Structure formats: C-alpha cells, structure tokens
C-alpha cells in the first residue's frame, strides 16, 4: 500500500487509474448538494493544499511533458523544433489527411454560428473579459507567418508592461517605480496614446509612445471599426489590442492602479530604493498576484463545483513537468471561446450591445469601472460549444475579410492538426466509438455524421466544441484536460514561484504580505476604488 500511496503523490493519473476512478456522471440532486460539502472542506488549509496538489499533478501529467520533439518549425525533429520558441509548439505530429477528404471550411464555420443564444450555467461575462485579456498576452500568432508567434512565453503582465524592455520604458513614469497615468474626474487611467487633434483629424502617436505599436497597423487595422469619436480616448497600454473591449480597458486600468499603489507603499517603506528597484519589485509582486488570480479564481471556476484550488508553494520544483514554457498551437486554438460572447449585457437603458462593449473607452470613463464590473459579473455569458458563436464573429463584414471564426478554422487546417480522437488518446482519455457518445443533440450528430462520416475523422477543433458536458462543468472533458494541463504547467513554472526566488528578498516584506492576503480580483479592484463597498467582481454568476 505504501507504494500505491507514493504513486498517488508522484504520478496521480496512474494512481487514479489504479483506484479505478474516473469523473462520474452525477445525478442532479447530488450535484446540487456537492458545493455545500466542497466549500467547508476547501476551507481547511491542509485539505485544500492536498487536493490542489492532486488536481494540479493529475492534469499536469495528462500527457507527456515538454520538451516535445516537434514544433511548427518542421515536420521532423530538428534543432529549431527543439529550441526556437518563436515557432509555436505542437502537442502531436501533423496529420496526413488530405484537404479534399475534409468538409469545406465554409461548412465547418457554419457549425459555430448562433441562431439563438444558449446561456452558460453559471459563468459571468466578467470571466469572458478576463479570459480574453489574460490570453491575449501570451497566445499571439504572428501576422506574417502562422507557424510563428510573438509571445513572451511567460505570464508577465505585458498587458500593462509591454513586450520588451524598450516598450516597458515608454510606459514607465521613471519616478517612484510608477507607471505613467492620468487622472480623469479623480480616477486613475493610463495616459492617452494620441496627440490632441481637431475632430476627424489624423491620428498621431505622442512622441513618447513612438514605436509602442506599429502605427499603420494600429490606426488602420486595430481601429478600423472604432467610431471616430472614440479614438481620442485610446489609452497607451502594453498590447495593441488593449483598447479593443471594455474588459481590456477595465483590467488594464485596475492593474495599473494596483501597480502604482504598491509602488507608493514600497517607496514609503524603503525610502533608500531608487526608481528602478521600486519598479522591478512592484512588477514582481504584480505578476505573482496575477498568477494567484489565474489559479485560485480563474482556473477554480473552470473546474467543477468551484473547488477552492490554491497555488501550492514550489510544487513545480520537484516535478518532471517543470520545463521552460512553450505555447502550443493547440493551446492557442482551444482558447477561441467565441461562444462566451453574449448577444447583450444587461437590460433596459444600461444594456450593452456588442457595438457598445467594443472599442469604447468613453463608456468606461463615463460609467466607471465599478458599475461596469458589477454589470458584467451579474450577467451570464454564452455557453461554450458549437452553434453558439455570435453572427459578427462568424459572418464576414466584408467579402474580402475573413471572419474571426473563419481565421481560426483556417489556422487549424494550416497547422494540420490530428483528429479529435487522437488528442483524446494523447491526453489519457478513451477514444469515442461514435457521434452518439459526443453529443445527445440529434440534429448536430446528423450534421457531423454527414460532414465527417466517421468519429475518427472528426477534426479536433470541431470535436472539443461539440463535446457535451454537464452543467457543473464549463466545457467538455478533452478541452478541460488540455486547458488545465497547459495552464498549470505554464503558470506554475514561472521563475518567480521557484523556491530560491519566492521570498522577501525578491518581493520585500510588504510584498509578501500583499501576495499572501490577495485571493480575488474583487480585492484588487476594491483597494483601488473610491467606493470599495460598491464593487462586485465575480467569474461565477447565478442563474437569473
């Protein structure tokens, strides 16, 4: 029995298999009672830590650890495929299926289109905005070459710090460790990106931000659909898409405020520190705060029953999955959760349609961060799955301009990914024998059968969204496994979490206290709010 107990700690997937366990198909009465049992258990530190360690390793060992023999650099193992991380990684070798043996891209795109919105069971629109803001920082496909990426390969809060030292310098105040900011009606926001102009005049980057983004691409592509009246309120932030939704704007502002708050606190406690040390120590603290939110709030919500999982100190140090980060093309694609986007946010005079929550910094400034976060936290998002992506992400706005969903499917095809069943097998799950095991939706089964003929020919990107799941999960079994695997093995390997780095010398005594006491996005928003009692920020949304 001792050997099995050790196996449970070191190789939990094998141990769980030895115990004969698999995630059960639970009856609804039991499902409704489980949160009442899990919440008090999760409040016990020893139980929470042990369960977190088990869950993290269960998913971290779901498939073979990095390094992988192949990347998008070549179809065979080469030095580039092993070392050049500007090429996206890949979990499995490329498929050999001929394009003519697959349904057309138009037919596959049509599988995603929403005719009537299906709401999620309990996921808020705030979760949707956080997911997009978070993943835009490291899932970055090169515009010039689909096989490559522009990712920093680490969770580094480049959303507010920029990509590289030169851009970070543009965004820093170079005083007191702070980031540049401005006050608008007493509220702190990033500075504006453009020079003041006459109505309808040409957009010109401020000299201090020259080179922050590629100017022509930014003004002609990023802002192509942005109403002219909103362009003067574009903020100077770390990423080119940082103003694309009210979610991006809100989160950039919140994390900028927290950075400057902590920098001020550190300056008071360490008056002998110069600007650079104040900035770098604050950035270290901020990155770990984000990592905690990702594990303890974001991934917690993705898992069943919102079990209070935690960042287990130094868990990666002794594990085989502790390898340098390298984002895979599959991880990039599986995060295309376009179906989370609702038809509208809220009701009545405050209702926001898609045109209202895209490229609309004036709305954030006028309504205020607290009010919008509360509204987004109380509105359910769409449900992840096929037949539920809003039309404006599926249909072309111009005949020569592919839609967001079309681009995703084209990337999947160009990457020559293997079948849905091949990925199930690679991640320790049973292969499905037929479409009836994939979904109970008869009409959808018939469409998939007509397009693919055989479950073994079903494309991975289609299968992960077709996979049916119970209400206590947020997505299907394979997608959950792949999300958790890549998230845990790439968040918890961050160098700031290593045993010889995670200490007061790196973060300061005050920084360690802030890290220890912070467990939620709501805490960060509230301590930077003029009305903290009005803040309601949650990824969980009860059915209304």
Automatic annotation (TrEMBL):
This is Heme peroxidase. One of its GO terms (cellular component) is cytoplasm. It holds the Pfam family An_peroxidase. The keyword Oxidoreductase applies. Keywords: Dioxygenase, Iron, Metal-binding, Oxidoreductase. It comes from Rhodococcus wratislaviensis NBRC 100605. One of its GO terms (molecular function) is peroxidase activity. SUPFAM superfamilies: Heme-dependent peroxidases. The keyword Hydrolase does not apply. GO terms for biological process: fatty acid metabolic process; response to oxidative stress. InterPro entries: Haem_peroxidase_animal, Haem_peroxidase_sf, Haem_peroxidase_sf_animal, Oxylipin_biosynth_metab.
């Amino acid at each position: 029995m001792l050997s099995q107990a050790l196996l449970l700690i070191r190789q939990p997937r094998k141990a769980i298999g030895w115990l004969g366990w698999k995630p059960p198909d639970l009856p609804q009465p039991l499902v409704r009672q489980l949160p009442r049992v899990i919440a008090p258990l999760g409040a016990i530190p020893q139980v929470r830590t042990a369960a977190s360690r088990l869950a993290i390793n269960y998913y971290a060992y779901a498939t073979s650890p990095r390094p992988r023999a192949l990347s998008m650099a070549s179809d065979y193992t080469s030095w580039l495929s092993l070392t050049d991380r500007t090429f996206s990684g890949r979990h499995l070798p490329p498929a050999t299926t001929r394009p003519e043996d697959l349904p057309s891209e138009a037919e596959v795109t049509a599988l995603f289109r929403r005719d009537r919105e299906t709401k999620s069971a309990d996921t808020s629109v705030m979760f949707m905005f956080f997911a997009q803001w978070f993943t835009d920082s490291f899932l970055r496909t090169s515009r010039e070459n689909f096989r490559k990426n522009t990712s920093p390969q680490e969770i580094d809060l480049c959303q507010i710090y920029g990509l590289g030292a030169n851009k970070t310098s543009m965004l820093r105040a170079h005083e007191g460790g702070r980031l540049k900011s401005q006050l608008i009606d007493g509220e702190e926001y990033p500075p504006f990106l453009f020079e003041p102009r006459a109505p309808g005049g040409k957009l010109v980057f401020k000299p201090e931000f020259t080179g922050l983004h590629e100017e022509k691409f930014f003004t002609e592509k990023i802002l192509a659909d942005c109403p002219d009246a909103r362009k003067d309120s574009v903020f100077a932030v770390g990423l080119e898409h940082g103003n694309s939704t009210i979610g991006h704007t809100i989160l950039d502002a919140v994390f900028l405020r927290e950075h400057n708050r902590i920098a001020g606190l550190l300056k008071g406690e360490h008056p002998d520190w110069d600007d650079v040390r104040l900035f770098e120590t604050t950035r270290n603290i901020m990155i770990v705060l984000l990592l905690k939110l990702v594990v303890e709030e974001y991934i917690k919500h993705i898992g069943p029953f919102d079990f209070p999982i935690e960042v287990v100190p130094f868990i990666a140090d002794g594990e085989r999955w502790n390898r340098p980060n390298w984002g895979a093309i599959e991880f990039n694609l599986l995060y295309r959760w376009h179906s989370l986007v609702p038809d509208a946010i809220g009701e009545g005079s405050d209702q926001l349609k898609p045109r209202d929550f895209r490229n609309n910094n004036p709305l954030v400034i006028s309504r205020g961060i607290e009010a919008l976060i509360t509204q987004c936290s109380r509105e359910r998002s769409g449900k992840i799955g096929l037949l539920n992506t809003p039309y404006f992400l599926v249909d072309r706005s111009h005949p020569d301009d592919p839609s967001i969903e079309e681009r995703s499917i084209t990337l999947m095809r160009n990457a020559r990914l293997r079948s849905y069943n091949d990925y199930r097998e690679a991640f320790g799950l049973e292969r499905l024998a037929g479409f009836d095991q994939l979904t109970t939706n008869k009409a959808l089964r018939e469409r998939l059968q007509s397009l693919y003929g055989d479950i073994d020919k079903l494309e991975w990107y289609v299968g992960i969204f077709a996979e049916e799941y119970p209400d206590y999960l947020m997505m299907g079994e394979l997608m959950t496994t792949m999300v958790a695997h890549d998230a845990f093995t790439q968040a918890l390997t961050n160098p700031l979490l290593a045993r010889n780095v995670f200490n007061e010398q790196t973060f300061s005594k005050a920084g360690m206290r802030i890290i220890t006491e912070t467990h939620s996005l709501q805490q960060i928003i509230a301590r930077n709010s003029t009305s903290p009692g009005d803040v309601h920020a949650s990824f969980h949304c009860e059915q209304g």
